[in-house]
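Many introductory courses stop at the sequence. We go one step further.
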Amino acid sequence: MGLQQRLLRWDGPVTATDAAPRLRRTTYAIAAGSGIASLAMNFWLPLLPLYMQQLGASTQANALFWTAIANVALGLARIVSGPVWGAVSDRIGRKPMFVRTLLFASATIVLVGFAREPWHVVVAFAVQGLFSGFTPAATALMSVSTPEERMSSSLSIVTGGQYLGTTAGPALGAALVVLVGFRGSMFAGALLPIIAATVVQVLVPRDAVRPRVPRDERTEAPSALWRTLPAQFYLAVFLFFLLFGMNQVVRLLTPIALQGIEGTDSVAGISGVAFSAGGLAAVLGIVLIARSFVRPGRLKGALIAGTLAAGAANLLLATTHGAAEYIVLFSIFSLVHASMIPAANTLIAMNVARDRRGTGFGIASSAQAVALMVGPMAATVFGASSIALGFATMAVLFAAIAALVFAGVREPRRGAG
């Protein structure tokens, strides 16, 4: 059996010493692909409520409403498509599925750029939900492209790449908005996922898949996998849903909160600074916390500490009255939130068989889709009533998550560090 086949074989883990240079190249190529796509999306996505106002949304609350509707359309489409694409990836490979998501991300950005009314964005997001979703695709590909003992470390690098895109995207996007407007920044960003797809296609080896079993020899229907997964898998997916959805609430409230603090509608620049500072803090959270401390035996403790710190940051955000103070607190929240994502992804991966991780992360993608609907809808409610109440509610929910992790999470027995 060749070296690449030993590294990627579907029916068992390999050692971390196998093909180390190739493993590093694969890890960083997947991280780069995901990071470039994240950069492209963050040219404009954090400023979507402001773009909705430009398209005709009459008030801040109306802009948040249309943003929520767009995310509902994306979420509904992804609930249906996530498990389907995940099962397909287990059959034909996670690499081609990742490349597909990148190309359709580019198409989605073009559609949003051509929008003339808010409902056009809704249609574009529905297309995104049906055919894209590069974050779970990248995670699934990475989970089968690395030895089990390097799992959390490799997933941290991929998450770090995504947050690097989140860091640079808003600042570059805000600058492009000033120079060429919202549409110009989107059309420029649409080129980047194509570059990301090329990087992955050239540098990432094709992952091995489970040999197909003739229909008359099958003992288990592929569609029945969800019924055989352990309760810990679904608990990990639920935690992923909560973390993602609550992050959506905080991020979508940020431009509106800054509008209230600054007393002006022209906050694209300062919003870009806030999201860039948050992205940089998230990268530091990955590098300084997740890669160093999120290891087997520490996943539960990392999640408890992270949720409590995130709750404290939200409680302070509810009372802040200065833009600089808000940006600092938002950055602290971003740091601790980012450090929890590799832990949640590791818990998901380690509770599903290696050869079915595409399906497992497809299920997680559906949970993320529900968060895409619930998060913006909650942000809409808080934006129309009280932003301070929104942040206070997030603080209480994070404390509840810490209690849930303490009572329910069990560390995976297989090493994932």
